[in-house]
Amino acid sequence: MHSEPKRGRWFRFVARCLLAAVALYLLLLIPEPASPPPKGADKQAFLWQRDAFWAALEKEFQQARLTGCNGLAAPVADSLNEIQRQLDVLAATNLPPGATVFGSLETNFFLLAPRVAACPERLPDYLQAFARMRSLVKRQSEHWPMDSPETRDRLYRSLYGGRAGIEAAMLQSPPEKLSPLLEGDLESSATPSASVHGVAMHSGDILISRGGAATSALIARGNDFPGNFSHVALVHVEEWTKNVSVIEAHIESGVGVRPIEAYLQETKLRIMLLRLRSDLPALLADPMLPHKAAAQALSAAQARHIPYDFAMDHADPAKQFCSEVASAAYRTQGVTLWMGLSHLSTPGVTAWLSALGVRHFETQEPSDLEYDPQLRVVAEWCDPDTLFKDHADNAVIDVMLEAAERGEKLDYNLWLLPMTRLAKAYSVVLNWCGKVGPVPEGMSSATALRVKRLSAGHAAIKARLIERAEQFRAEKGYTPPYWELVRMARVSR
Asked: Cα–Cα distance between 99 and 146 in angstroms, integer?
């Protein structure tokens, strides 16, 4: 007689629970309020506008392959000699960024690439010429106004453009012909050091690198001057033990410290080592200044939790993104890095980065640190496999950003928002306990879903791009150059 009322109460309880779950789901389904359209840096984004020239270079490469190394010996030697002659001019005097020799050197460097690609025996000479050009252009820039658009264009064209030339040749060379280490300037330093992968790494050195995620590609390419790097880390070498640590900011956990071995075990498509010039007045007064900057960053990271700065506000050290770790540390020692700030101006780039939480569009981007005349390039590491992956990732994100410039939004799946908000709440609890949750600290649920959408879209296009690249390689017998990868990415999208 009493079973029926109990069963009724149980059904009512279940119904209430289901109703509450539906109400909670609908409540959590309410989207975040739309942000106003972001105002970018209002600068002029760089454009090569040389598609016909790139196509001509590929035809030149095809002809060079038919000619062979014996027939190319004299032309390659003549080109290298002419480049060295122009570099001798740079070494002998100070020139403004608009001097004609820079444009001529740029063109000659590009013209040599297809011949070296067809005759990889000359690749070491080409790499050496690039290293010398980079060093001399950076030394010339020590006398240039860093707030000048002409200065920025010239540094980018020479350093980024020169690297594009050598990498086009490297990707056509047999892997056994390539060394993963490209040496740069032998800049002296008085700070503690240790050997890492054949290079003396000093305390206070700066590592810029490129990760393998879609967001890494977006950080590297989402700039008025699209670059090759997405992450910055500051090196600390302990004076007595010679233990090498890196201080860096990660989206998932904020600023932290870890051994160099752990840093190198992560996916790195390329790494560059930068060092402050020893002849800077601040270093002449205190040669241990870089070590003090690294020690300050190490101490700050160990003393308190420093959250990741998604807004990219380089002027506020309370939260720090990766570039800010290095700049904030050196700022405490009176040195201002990024003499030329990065600018994000185009509507598509600013809209997408704003959707990921960025609020400052005149800031410090990893790629642009290479152009700071206060820093020397000491070494660079890459290998053929990761180099091609880097190029493929770049091509895909470049094409996705073309769609962004046409007005395509970086959106997310609204129906996943309630579950992501629950994951965010769980992450907050873990953050209180000093742990890392599924949704990074400081990242909204909607932003987490946008990152997921970006990654999935990038992966899908890249998979189709790789298939087309393999077909291209099988049909033509060589690796598709970058402009071909971009074309394939457009078709794949």
From this structure: 16
Locate CATH 3.90.1720.10 in the chain: 189-381
* Amino acid letter, 21: A
- Please give the Cα distance from 296 to 367 (Å, whole number): 24
In whole angstroms, give the CA distance from residue 124 to residue 182: 10
Look up the CATH superfamily of 189-381. Answer: endopeptidase domain like (from Nostoc punctiforme) (3.90.1720.10)
| Chain centre to alpha carbon of residue 205 | 18
DSSP state of 287: T
Q: What is the dihedral of CA 336, 231, 390, 410, to 10 degrees?
A: -110
Residues 6+ apart with CB under 8 A from 179: none
* Single-letter amino acid, residue 328: A
pLDDT digits 0-9 by tens, 405-450 = 999 999 999 999 989 989 999 999 999 988 999 999 999 999 999 9
**Distance spanning both ends of the chain, measured CA to CA:** 67
8 A C-beta contact, residue 180 and residue 354: no
Nearest of 483, 487, 403, 489 to residue 51 by alpha carbon: 483
- Strand boundaries in 305-361, DSSP class E: 342-343
> Would you say 454 and 215 are in contact if contact means Cβ atoms under 8 Å apart?
yes
For 279-330, what is each residue's pLDDT tens digit? 999 999 999 999 999 999 999 999 999 999 999 999 998 999 999 999 999 9
| Range in 5-9, 170-174, 238-242, 271-275 with the lowest mean pLDDT | 5-9
Cα(120)–Cα(183) distance, rounded to whole angstroms? 18
Are 258 and 246 in contact by the 8 Å Cβ rule? The answer is yes
**Rounded Cα gap, residues 271 and 267, in angstroms:** 11
Bridge partners (DSSP) listed for residue 342: 363
Report whether pLDDT(220) > 50.
yes
Residue 3 has pLDDT above 70, yes or no: no
**Rounded to whole angstroms, how far apart are CA atoms 216 and 140?**
31
Contacts of 387 (CB under 8 A, 6+ apart): 167, 170, 171, 269, 270
